[in-house]
Amino acid sequence: MKMTIPMMAALLAFACAAAAPNTLTEAEKADGWQLLWDGKTLDGWVGEKGGCKAPPSKGWEIKDGILTVLPTSRIVNGKWEKLPKEVAALGGGGDLVTKESFKDFDLKLDFRLTACANSGIKYFYDRDRFGGTCEEYQLLDAGHPDSRHGKNGNRRVASLYDMIPANAEDVVKPLGEWNTARIVSKGSHVEHWLNGKKVLEFERGSEEFRKIVAASKYKASEKNEKKNPGPWGENPEGKIKLQDHGDSTVSFRNIKIRKL
Q: What is the pLDDT of residue 16?
């Protein structure tokens, strides 16, 4: 069949519509996906600072369909330094938390790093357990000092922070470009994906997982939990959280999820 100009224009319009940020295609809607962020407001989100009661009043910028966390400090030559007061005053919003909790889910979002940036996607978050600590998909530029800590690279991009390394430096795109993170959790099985490649998987609650917890910084959180004791990292459900590390500018878009 010969492709006419109107047909080509229609196909181009369809491709552009399908690629529009912060939207769902008809196929995604049929498959159960929902937007976690509408691209315009913080509806559906609250700030961890202030007890998860309302969205933060500062620290998160929404512009042109992009959600950006604003810092109060920065990394220069591997060391922290404060930003000028008028700039730092814009930051300090704290972590963003979904109002809704999730159990079995498939989460996708685009993120864009700047030099020495540090953030994370936290999941199964419960502010009343383990001091609010939970599993974290690490978002990190290798220039940040934290990339040199941990064990075997378990604090680098796409890793299960401080627990399981992803070794995904060959998958992450250069600074300034958008990457796509994906977390799939079904039952006890969890997978981390980066730009279409699965970079790690684990079984929550398994003997191996509990050994990894015991060797991580989270062992202290488990030990110190008095009100709601139990194995760390095994909350049956929890909220999604975007981290404000305080020293980094990180942007997000296309935040979507489907329940499995």
A: 45
